[in-house]
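ERR on first pass: missing label on line 2. Operator R.T. fixed the label and resubmitted. Corrected input:
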Amino acid sequence: MAKWQIFIGRVTLFPQLTAPAALPSPALLFRQVWGNDPDAYQKAANPMAPSFAQGKVNEFAATCAVHPTRIDLQVMGQQGPESVGTLTVVEDTAGLHGEMAGIIHAVGSMGINCSRAAIYIQLVTLTPDVKTANQVLIGVIPKTYGIQIQDEEDFIFQVNRPYKSAAVPTLEMNSILKWSLEKFQVIKLIVPPGGIASPASGSITNPENQEFITASLSFDVNNRPARLGSHDQESVLSEALERVSAAQKELGFKLKGW
Amino acid sequence: MQTKFYMQPLLVTTDAPVGGAAMLPDALGNYQSTTHVESASGSNLSLTLESQVFRTFASIPVISQTQLAAEYKDLGDALAQMQEINVGEDWSVEQPVYEAASYVATILRARAFPVPKVFNHGPASVVFNWRNINSELYLTVSGNGLSALISTPERITKRLDIKYSDEALLKPTEFFALILAYHVLEPLVLEVSSGTSESR
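pass 2 clean. output:
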């Protein structure tokens, strides 16, 4: 089996349309979830654009984005000096599982009324070309679906296996599996000493643009719209995380810690 | 095995056509939008909620995404300026109203609805406006709910009031699609199958 690694893990809350107060700032939520201040914070001037807080958490890159209609808390691999220009993935899958569980626990005390809560995990494996990526995908798509592909590009196959939540019995859940061929572009900028704003630095060195072809499998588990208090959000997301764990095992993956 | 697919015009109505005349399809065999009335029980709507059955062959006029993005950015900038007005002045907007107006604008943009104009604003409300050839649609965003009013020069043709606590606003996109469909009197196609968390 090809070596699959986690590209991104994300918890999303979709606030209800209501007007009690402003949503908390991403910097505040970052502290609430990860216990320390973010390394960077960007507040959007336009209220329809997201504000971001970003920082390093253990060996992961953590981001909190707050938008009027959604709050994203996501974890990715941390890019080091040796990995600049490459596609960074998570080596420590058990550690990422722990981070997801920690985010979900923190959500339980945020006090944000939501209509939906979601967990999203994307696995990728790098391949040299499209044909190899398709072969890898065919290897992890259950035979029952009868999918046959060879050198087609932009392949996407998605199914939803809805279920009733056991944690909050009134809730109906979406459990979406998406197999796809994904191309990533990584652009590496070489900034001269003094920075690009320095008058002496002249123009920026030509950026290096590298494309990566991956086979991708994503798990997207979320509830259909309903009124969700903080406690229910935590319960539903914990259940969703277990659902992802079970699904990856069912598909033959053996992610450490999941 | 060969499967044939047919395109079937759909007409659902619980109202008898006005004057007893049958509704006729157009030259292409498509029906225009039709209406059927649903019970408003359990809802806080002030008037009966009607739902539209839309034909699936038409959509809202296609607008360049780039143009739409630029126009929505202008709308966001206008909202941001409202918040900068000092509290207590006539044109200042209270924080909860500002948050709700930003939410509404973001939902409208996400589903590529036509960009509204800001018709009026004050501490307790922001009023968005769409103008059609024959009618105006005013969407008032206040601290406790939304109010949509459609009017022609002669009369008010439709009014919907809804509180934020109403179940219908758990799916706000459908509410906005409904009032815009009333306004333009054209079918709107609304994607309802997506269960992903990628977009909203």
